[in-house]
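Example for tutorial group B:
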């Protein structure tokens, strides 16, 4: 199989490319390095080894460029589309960029994949599509009004995919991710995800900031569970399972306060000075929902999805990776600034 991974230099995309290469598939990666990094590709290459790396072709290109999408899709059987401009706050700061990357970029990939005769496209949607609907846990048919340009852009992706199924018979699967975390996730910048940002701050001796009172809760999902959902979506043969949206999560809630304690306690054996560290609380971010939890029964039933990593198991692997890689780059500190 020849598979396309857009966003291959990014966090989730590099893990998808790694899984495919380890299954001895041919992979074409497409990325413009707007959020992905060359370091992620280096980690990917090291993980799969030189022989399997030879099956990887990387194109430095932009999904906003239809020609780049067409070049990537030539001869492919599958597209795993994960190139996007993430983050709710970033989309509020720059809604034009969010639409150009997430809506136009995805439309370009749908057109390119359809025209190249690709069998199926699996793409990253988001729990942000649920918007302001208050019910928990979230079930796929029930959504509210969008509360951010990011959430709106991801819902637009699902609507376009549905139109392509109806008008052109092109199959796709939308995966609504809930707070994915794991190795290679960027720990820096104003739009960094909470787990990578906190681990990076603690390891470097910087303050940890909690938006709000810390009682907000999320359904955190380790990246290997996401890889599983993608492979299942790519290979499922039941026609009833395609052209659907699925929640990808654990179906559990962890508060930010609980999350901080889990991360801190995992680091204390290696960095004892973290025992006394406490987070700094500040105002909640714009567009954030207070509580989020997924119902994953649909993915279990139609895809056979069975998460293999709970939050703590994923955090153990994630902490190990950041400690090793930040230490290797000389970014660790012996003392932590106490908040």
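The residue assignment follows.
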């Amino acid at each position: 199989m020849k598979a396309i991974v857009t966003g291959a230099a990014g966090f989730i995309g590099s893990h998808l490319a790694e899984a495919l290469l380890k299954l001895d598939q041919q992979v074409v990666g497409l990325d413009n390095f707007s959020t992905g990094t060359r370091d992620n590709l280096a980690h990917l290459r090291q993980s799969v080894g030189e022989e399997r790396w030879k099956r990887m072709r990387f194109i430095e290109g932009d999904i906003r460029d239809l020609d780049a999408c067409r070049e990537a899709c030539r001869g492919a059987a599958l597209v795993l589309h994960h190139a996007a401009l993430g983050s709710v706050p970033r989309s509020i700061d720059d809604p034009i960029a969010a639409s150009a990357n997430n809506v136009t970029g995805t439309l370009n990939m749908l057109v390119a994949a359809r025209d190249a005769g690709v069998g199926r496209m699996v793409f990253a949607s988001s729990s942000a599509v649920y918007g302001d609907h208050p019910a928990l846990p979230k079930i796929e048919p029930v959504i509210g009004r969008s509360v951010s340009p990011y959430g709106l852009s991801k819902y637009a992706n699902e609507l376009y995919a549905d139109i392509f199924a109806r008008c052109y018979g092109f199959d796709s699967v939308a995966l609504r991710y809930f707070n994915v975390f794991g190795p290679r996730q960027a720990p820096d910048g104003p739009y960094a995800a909470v787990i990578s940002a906190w681990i990076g701050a603690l390891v470097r001796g910087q303050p940890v900031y909690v938006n709000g009172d810390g009682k907000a809760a999320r359904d955190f999902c380790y990246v290997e569970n996401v890889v599983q959902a993608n492979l299942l979506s790519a290979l499922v043969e039941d026609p009833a399972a395609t052209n659907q949206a699925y929640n990808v999560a654990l179906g559990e809630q962890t508060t930010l306060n609980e999350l901080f304690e889990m991360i801190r306690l995992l680091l204390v054996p290696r960095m004892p000075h973290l025992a006394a560290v406490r987070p700094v609380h500040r105002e909640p971010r714009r567009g954030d929902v207070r509580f989020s939890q997924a119902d994953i029964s649909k993915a279990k039933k139609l895809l056979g999805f069975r998460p293999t990593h709970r939050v703590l198991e994923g955090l153990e692997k994630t902490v190990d990776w950041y400690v090793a890689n930040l230490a290797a780059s000389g970014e660790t500190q012996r003392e932590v600034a106490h908040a």
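The radius of gyration is 19 Å. Compare this with the pattern of hydrophobic and polar residues in the output above.
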